[in-house]
């Protein structure tokens, strides 16, 4: 099984609130997972040199423990590799834990629920049947991913990994995910920062600020919503860039209010290299560790070791071989 990563283009922090929208893109790299029905019950995960394991005798991964609690134990041996999501400074900020949650949940769920087997490569289910199976996997992966993060998390990354492509996401206990086919997207580059940031802690600061200053928080959410809708209604790459640039300004404004360095010096310097060439750029996600740069077709990017073209993953989670 292969499950793509994700990046949130617009809607940071706001998507943690019920009904608040965001725009996310599924992208490569992918988590790879395999299942051996003849092996002992076990989940083995790795990201580079880091190893994580669940067995009936014990577990050193809160995510694996939450997945087993939600879906039941595996009936064979699972192996999950997210090493492609790691860089020289650790994780790349591309939704690796969400992709792992989807991969493991899919393998656990398809072994127990007849309708979820519509996801298998040789299945003859209708499109509606496959969509129902994906929703079952999404529900299980989202519940486990949130539990492993102390109950927090919008789930945009989990949903995007399941569905693939570009999605409009609306937050809440049961998020609403709508696949979106853009008329034209700008050239998009991922820009790696050098400052990892723990998303749950950043979200906690946002929640504290929202309670402390409800008026500014409400205006922030409305502005975020307007920019998402502006992006979705854009008739071309240039209009998309305008919304992305304004989204960066809004995210930086919020970071100053909640005390989170969403665009620390290291990331700002890297994004400025693109801005100097006429690109727009913004931090994405909780901030710090990742940014995105955008420009209409024909605008050449700088050649930088910490930047790479965004490679969109259209199909979301997919089977590589018959399970």
Order of helices and strands: EEEEEHEEEHHHEEEHHHHEEE
SS field, number of helical segments = 8
**Using only CA atoms, what is the Rg?**
19 Å
Structural class: alpha+beta
Whole-Å distance between the termini? 9 Å
User: Would you count the extended β strands for me?
Assistant: 14
Sheet with most strands: 8 strands, mixed
Dominant shape: globular
The portion of residues assigned to helices is 25-40%
Can you offer a commentary on this structure?
The protein has 323 residues and is of the alpha+beta class. Helix content is 37%, strand content 24%. The strands form 3 sheets. Strands 1, 2, 3, 4, 5, 6, 9 and 10 form an 8-stranded mixed beta sheet that branches. A 4-stranded antiparallel beta sheet has the order 12-13-11-14. Strands 7-8 form a two-stranded antiparallel sheet. Strand 12 (280-283) and strand 13 form a beta hairpin. Helix 2 (96-110) crosses helix 4 (156-163), helix 3 (127-148) runs antiparallel to helix 4 (156-163) and helix 6 runs antiparallel to helix 7. It is globular. The model has no long low-confidence stretch (mean pLDDT 89).
């Amino acid at each position: 099984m292969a499950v793509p990563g994700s990046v949130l283009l617009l809607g940071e922090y706001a998507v943690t609130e019920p009904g608040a929208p965001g725009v996310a893109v599924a992208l490569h790299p992918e988590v790879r997972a395999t299942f051996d029905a003849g092996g002992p019950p076990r989940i083995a995960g790795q990201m580079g040199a880091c190893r994580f394991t669940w067995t009936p005798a014990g577990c050193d991964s809160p995510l694996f423990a939450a997945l087993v609690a939600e879906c039941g134990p595996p009936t064979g041996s699972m192996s999950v590799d997210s090493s492609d999501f790691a860089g020289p400074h650790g994780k790349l900020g591309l939704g690796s834990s969400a992709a792992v949650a989807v991969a493991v949940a899919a393998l656990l769920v398809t072994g127990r629920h007849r309708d979820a087997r519509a996801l298998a490569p040789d299945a003859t289910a209708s499109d509606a049947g496959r969509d129902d199976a994906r929703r079952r996997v999404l529900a299980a992966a989202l519940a486990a991913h949130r539990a492993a993060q102390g109950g927090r998390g919008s789930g945009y990354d989990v949903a995007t990994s399941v569905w693939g492509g570009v999605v409009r996401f609306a937050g809440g206990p049961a998020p609403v995910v709508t696949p979106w086919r853009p008329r034209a997207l700008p050239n998009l580059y991922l820009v790696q920062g050098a400052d990892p940031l723990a998303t749950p802690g950043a979200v906690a600061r946002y929640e504290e600020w929202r309670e402390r200053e409800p008026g500014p928080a409400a205006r922030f959410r409305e502005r975020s919503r307007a920019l998402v809708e502006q992006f979705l209604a854009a008739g071309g790459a240039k209009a998309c860039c305008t919304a992305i640039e304004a989204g960066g300004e809004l995210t930086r404004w919020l970071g100053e209010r909640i005390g989170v360095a969403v665009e620390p010096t290291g990331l700002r310097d890297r994004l400025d290299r693109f801005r100097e060439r006429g690109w727009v750029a913004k931090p994405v996600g909780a901030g710090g560790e990742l940014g995105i740069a955008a420009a209409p077709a024909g605008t050449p990017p700088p050649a930088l070791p910490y930047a790479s073209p965004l490679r969109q993953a259209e199909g979301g989670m997919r089977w590589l071989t018959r399970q």
